[in-house]
Amino acid sequence: MKKKSSVILAILILVTVLVSCEKLLPTPVKDEDVLAGTIPGLTMQQEKLHLIGDAAFAKIFTTEEGLGPVFVQNSCSNCHTGNGKGHPSNVVTRFALVNGPSVDYLIAKGGPQLQQHCINDYSAEDLPSEANVFTKRMAPAIMGLGYIAALNDLSILANVDSTDLNADGISGRVNYVNPTSFFLPQSIHVSNNGQYIGRFGKKAEKVTIQDQVVFALKQDIGITSDFDMVDLYNYKLGVYTGDLIPDPEVSVDFVNSLVFYMRTLKAPPRRDAEDADVVAGEKLFTQIGCVSCHVSTFTTAESDIAALSNQTFYPYSDFLLHDMGTALDDKYPEGSAASNEWRTPPLWGLGLAEESQGGLFLMHDGRATSFENAISLHSGEAASRRAAFIALSDAEKAQLIKFLKSL
Prior knowledge:
The protein is of the alpha+beta class and 407 residues long. The protein has 11 helices and 11 strands. Helix 2 (44-58) crosses helix 6, helix 5 (209-221) packs across helix 6 and helix 7 (276-287) packs across helix 11.
């Protein structure tokens, strides 16, 4: 009897400990509250490939693996906080020599981007004296890129209104850019005299995710690949100096794993869509004309990844270039994009930025730290939308902002 009582007492103590420990555990994070996870419908093999890419994205490169010799960061994840937008503390600097219509990105002088860090026994770059234009860029969010990459160019062209035929004050256009040497056009791509439509980057200067990955590996980390074998160096110290690691420093498989990872990241989750203020805010968003550029809905074309085929998604962007006026003119043109033109940034993920990415930092350089501040910087084509927002009552402004936070 005594032995039985001891067993019961032990069980009671164990239950009490387990319950107490459960109270100490953090509340599980809801899927809708994080910028992580895969798109629905992947196979087990694709989930495995995604994890391989995830590890590549988080990899911290060392000098022995080819880091640098000059670089911005030593890992992809150091720029893209939690798969989201960057932070003002790690913006990159681009520079050029601009003389009227002539633009020299000063490649021979370390351009187009400043690498302010370096490996041991080497020297970081300085801005060349020839440069007369400088711009700051914050890393973009990488969530949902696979859906954007799976769009047919015709879906983007459908919203082009270069001469503002509908007289709504908006005249979005595509950025036709010269393709990279490794670009392989797919059925979704439309050629224009050998140029293709950019859909990634602040000025839509990159056609594919692969273009973006290869550029970032080299310009941000100093890592060469089969797609770009020329290593970075400090031009003041001489050509091809400071890095004795054989090129390419990463394999084709490594690059492809990063591309697959980005293609299969889920879209930023929507929250509180049925909230009365959110619903009212979305109506106001449409009413004052924000949807002219921030188009809510697109549908992908057929894709080699079945989970990306014929999928409707909600980026709130038209992926077109728009004249944003003098306040956002950085004097730095790219491709056919003028210095005052910017690609409409997708709005999805805005509501998670403040908590998951160290604060709310908007616009291309993170200068705006509130939605009101960001809207106030809209001019050029967007001037009438800014005026319409300012004319709203305080209650209406709060509803519209609550809608933006739900994205």
